[in-house]
Amino acid sequence: MNFFDRLHDRIRTVDSVVSVGLDPDQSRIPDHLAEHDLPRWAFNRRIIDATHEHAAAYKPNAAFYEDPDGWRALEETIAYAHGKDVPVLLDAKRADIGNTTRQYAQLLETADAITVNPYMGRDSLQPFLSNEEAGVFVLCRTSNPGGADVQDLELETGEAVYERVAALADLWNENDNVGLVVGATKPEELEDLREQVPDLPFLVPGVGAQGGDAEAAVEYGLADGVGLVNSSRGIIFAGEDSEAQSASDSRAAEPRDDDGEEFAKASGQAAKRLKKRLNQYRD
Length: 283
Ligand SMILES: O=C(O)c1cc(=O)[nH]c(=O)n1[C@@H]1O[C@H](COP(=O)(O)O)[C@@H](O)[C@H]1O
Known about the structure:
single chain; 283 residues; alpha/beta; TIM Barrel; eight-stranded parallel beta sheet; 12 helices; 43% helix; globular; Orotidine 5'-phosphate decarboxylase
């Protein structure tokens, strides 16, 4: 089954377009998980247990796993998410000459979808694009301030580079498996791109920690109801805020009975809150 059909079903099942970003920064994982063989996996498992009812997808960013233990933690995480029926979008931003991308494309034997970088052109993406079952999200207008350096440049035709990328991605979509990555910090570009490529689903990162526009993310990110709005730190580290709050509260009150698992509960609440907030804007 095509990735976007599976995503459509998942969105309907959980009534949510939330993508939970699994970016387990090791310096922020709670201390009591440090003694586990794979602390990142122990952390992710608890986050998945607490959030899966609200998750249309999980999006682990490969940067947080690029060491031997990390890859093991990532494999365990993906298998566990699949056990909860949640598709996994590996945020790897890959692409290279064809011979090398064929190796990268093996990542799609484990994950259901991937983010890719269009800078090297169609042949650098072909091994991803020809996988009919997998989703391929092409970086188009990214959420970071420096995204303007290249993506906003105006071409001789009058279009911006990011608009040309969207037009190319539309051409590359022969298997109905292509989406775009467009940051929630760029609401005008989101609107412009939705008009330009009405059929492509978007992955919209940048709500939460980056302060992006949740309403625009939903209004323009979805194509026929399908798309993803991602928050990573805002969900998985939501417990840090409540910890700080309870530390200040505990000066006045009795200490709470906390087994160290409050962080997971807080992530579940944050995912649910984001789902509700985004659902206000869905049709
Ligand atoms: O491809 C991405 O997912 C991505 C594209 C983009 O333009 N901006 C962006 O923040 N991301 C990723 O989305 C996640 C955002 O994380 P938070 O800012 O913690 O919600 C990180 O994994 C980023 O690498």
